[in-house]
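Appendix B, example 12.
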Amino acid sequence: MAVEIRQRPTRSRRPQASKVASRNSLNDLTGKQWIKRTKSWLICDSRRYHRNRNTELHPARYPEELVIEFVEFFTKRGQWVLDPFAGSGATLIGCHETGRHAVGIELSDRYADMSRQRLTEQGASGCHVLNGDASRVDDPAFWEAGLNGTMSDLMCSEDSLPRFDCIMTSPPYWDMLRRSRGGVQSTHKQRAKQGLDTHYSDHDADLGNICDYEEFIEALGGIFDRCARLLRHRGYMIVVAQNVRVPEGEVRPLAWDLTRRISQTLSFQGERIWCQDSKKLGIWGYPTVFVPNYHHHYCLIFQRK
């Protein structure tokens, strides 16, 4: 008797596209994508955005890839991000590339214009630059004059202030940009020779011009207190900071002092360490004193609860 042999249907080996869980209220990531973004360190030092003279003028940029890493985790597409120290516009460009809206506040007329030019070139109509002092961020008059009615969907009727889903920024690292690097031909000195900016500005409201360390921490903490008023309930704020070595030979733990100050208002949720693996090494302290090459920054994460 002939026996009919039936083969089991073969299963496709092509991986099925993962879906974002419906209960995911934070972002648009799948579980696999989520877990990769929770590793406590990441290497990020691409320069593909920095190949023009305008952005090179800014003395302390951070890469758009770093912005994307965080805004994709802490927001959904279409939500709003605030950067109170916008600089050359990295946060705004990163938000545009990921389908987020953003507002950047920049004290310097020069850098504000630089950011606007970059946004125009990218066609980033959903991102905006306000030229002004971030210490006025909780003043309704500041927003009324700056927004000019163009972002009415951001405004909260109760206090006439906008509400943001996330804040991401990198403030001045105290007066580090004004400090001497000794006799070594540092990047700082090379920039000076090339006619590039070595500090932010000479503006009286520029926090990078405050000489007293404790005064700087309090002034910066005060701005973040005000920014917290604009953060929605359970929204996150990411502050990129670095510890600073002073000429007297000690290190000021700026990142941790700032963490303690901001924690008076927001809940500290941890940090991710941004590593710059391709940054040039300097021969500091040789041959008698240990001086580290700082190739990492702390991405401090806070939440409004």
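Confidence is low (pLDDT under 50) at residues 1-16, 48-53, 194-200. The first strand starts at residue 41 and ends at 43.
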